[in-house]
Structures are given as structure tokens and as C-alpha cells.
Amino acid sequence: MSELTKKTVFLNQDNINKAIKLFNVRTEKEAINRALELVIEESDIIETHREFAGKVKLESVFE
Predict the structure, then answer these.
(1) Of residues 41, 20, 21, the one with CA closest to residue 32
(2) Distance separating alpha carbons of residues 45 and 59, to the nearest angstrom
(3) pLDDT value at position 8?
(4) Which mean pLDDT values do the consecutive 10-residue runs of the chain (63 residues) have?
(5) Backbone angles phi and psi of 59, in degrees to 5
(6) What's the pTM?
(7) Which helix (H) or strand (E) segment is 15 a member of?
(8) Cβ atoms of residues 31 and 18 within 8 Å
């Protein structure tokens, strides 16, 4: 497990409340950690989107 570090930050309470519901967790700490983990896990996908943004023409498969 990674080292835990205490931080004092100002966060949007509405966003924290939404994250608690979305992740179905009990505490703000759990919600914030899950949100951070999700962003980190998805960073490869986010970077690929940035890299190819506007460069690739996608064909719709739902028409």
C-alpha cells in the first residue's frame, strides 16, 4: 500500500457528495481517494484522446 499523507485543502462539497454517491462509499476520504485512483487509472486513455483529438475521423457504427 502507498504511503498516506495528510493534506489540508479546500474542495467543492457538492462534488464530494456526488462522488460519495457515485462510488457508493461511506466517507469523504474514500470518495476522494477513489476519484484520484480513477483519474490515474484512466490517464493512458485520457492521454490517447488528447494525442488523437482532431486527427482521426471516426465512423459512426450506430447509423
Answers:
(1) 20
(2) 19
(3) 96
(4) 88 98 98 95 86 78 78
(5) -95, 130
(6) 0.69
(7) helix 13-23
(8) no
